[in-house]
Amino acid sequence: MIKSNIIADSIYTEISEKEDVSVDALKKLVESGEVVIFNNQNHKNLKPVAVGKGMKIKINANIGISPMCSDQEKELAKVRLCEEYEVDAIMDLSLGENIRQLRQNIINSTYIPVGTVPLYECFYYHKDYPENMIDHFLKILDESGQDGVDFVVIHAGLLQEHLELVKSRIIKVTSRGGSLLMKWMKQNNKENFLYTHFDKILQICKKYNMTISLGDGMRPATVIDETDAAQIEELKNIGDLILRCREAGVQALVEGPGHIPFHKIKENVDLQKKYCHNAPFYVLGPLVTDIAPGYDHITSAIGATMAAHCGADFLCYVTPAEHISLPDLEDVREGIVAFKIAAHAINISRGKDISRDRKMSIARSTVDWETQRKYVIDKTKFDKYLQRVPQDVKVCTMCGDFCALK
Ligand code: SF4
Q1: 239 and 110, same structural domain?
Q2: What's the CA-to-centroid distance between 112 and ligand 1, angstroms?
Q3: 133 shares a domain with 44
Q4: Ligand 1 centre distance from Cα of residue 47 (Å)
Q5: Domain boundary at 304, 334, 349, which?
Q6: Nearest ligand 1 atom, CA 367
Q7: Residue 327's pLDDT band (boundaries 50, 70, 90)?
């Protein structure tokens, strides 16, 4: 079982006030593994965040350089944007030169919990897929803990026996970590080293209180391949790993699929909760259709809203640039806003967070633009449209003098 004293009492008090739950109830949920609190003590200016049962829905924004776009300043500007829009967590998915330096700069510059995928750095610097990869991996994992990373994605659920199961898929694999591991397993004809050395990974994560996010290397890449044997067999193995995490006293959550048609989302959330012993569920979207590139912040926010309604706890945003290019600052803003709306819609439905809507509605009823601006999620777009209203006109220009509010 997880020991509640891995988190300081002052943090429980702070979170219980934010989440409107008693400290005792919160501690029990951490002990049972149904809630995780991101809190690596080496992340000095961190504001810890709780994810899971009974907590408000949280959102994550992915940032990070790629081998083709490596401007670190642009990535740090995305961090500032995440703070401005009150994003709950950031994942640095960098793949390129000076990964550690960027990671340290991100963590040292923000109070938002930061997650990473140590596997990316490992394969970036060892492109020949050497048989002894685990030593490199453990070194990077330990450095991540020292740097203050709050949660790490570990694709330990993927096994050799799952590789056969993707053969009938349209797109065999979409997970970057999953594809790297598949190649390593095939080249070396060995079982996934993250699985065979999982105990060593647990020891390091425990040392720094890094939460493990069990990555789904076999998640489907299209709505056609959803909920197939590869996805479900990996999920069952992830469920076993959740129990090993709890036994070792390491907090853990489970990553969920990225492309799922709308009517199959409930089934997917139910399966995750069943096989993974009610561990917090972190969904990547999910996108409910594959035919809207340029609008995948919308296709995924629709899926994320449904997933959260059915019991998912943590939503990873998708930007309009998904499937085409590295997102720029504007793409990140659009992705964040879409997911803030999704999370807020579900928080309202659970009786949390309604007061802001009340204040907004009162301001709208009196056409008080200034007060409305205080409560909108996206002030940038609000200002842009408000500029269209002539200075001397006090109402929205849609109906003008016929405005019902007037
Ligand atoms: S009633 Fe018409 S003019 Fe008034 S706020 Fe609504 S859309 Fe705008």
Answers
A1: yes
A2: 38
A3: yes
A4: 40
A5: 349
A6: 5
A7: very high
> Is any atom of ligand 1 closer than 6 Å to the C-beta of 23?
no
What domain range includes position 385? 355-402
The CATH number of whichever domain residue 317 belongs to comes to 3.20.20.540
Ligand 1 touching residue 396 (CB < 6 A): yes
Say how far apart CA 278 and CA 53 lie, in whole Å.
8
Answer for the pair 227, 268: CB distance below 8 angstroms, yes or no. Answer: yes
319/306 Cα distance (integer angstroms): 18
pLDDT band at residue 322 using 50, 70 and 90 as cut-offs: very high
Q: Which of 388, 402, 405, 406 to mutate to test the pocket of ligand 1 (most atoms within 8 A of CB)?
A: 405
User: How would residue 389 be classed by pLDDT, with cut points 50, 70 and 90?
Assistant: confident
Same domain, 248 and 330: yes
Q: How remote is the CA of residue 367 from the centroid of ligand 1, in Å?
A: 10
pLDDT for 402 equals 87
pLDDT class for 393, splitting at 50, 70, 90?
confident
Domain co-membership, 245 together with 303: yes
Question: Quick one: tokens of 68?
Answer: 């083709």
402 lines ligand 1 (CB under 6 A): no
**Threshold 0.70, pTM exceeds:** yes
Number of structural domains, the chain?
Answer: 2
The predicted pLDDT at position 258 comes to 87
Q: Of the candidates 329, 349, 369, which is a domain's last residue?
A: 349
**pLDDT tops 80 at residue 79:** yes
Residue 362 C-alpha to ligand 1 middle, in angstroms?
15
Do both 386 and 314 map to the same domain?
no
Q: What is the Å distance from ligand 1's center to 401 Cα?
A: 9
Cα-to-centroid distance, 351 and ligand 1 (Å): 28
Strand partners, 148: none
- Burial of 190-218, coded b for 16+ CB within 10 Å and e otherwise, reads eebbbbebbebbbebbbebbbbbbbbbbb
Q: Is the CB of 367 under 6 A from ligand 1?
A: no
- DSSP conformation letters of 154-223: E--S--HHHHGGGTT-SSS---HHHHHHHHHHHHHT---HHHHTHHHHHHHHHHHTPEEEE--TT--SST
Q: Does the beta carbon of 404 sit less than 6 angstroms from any atom of ligand 1?
A: yes
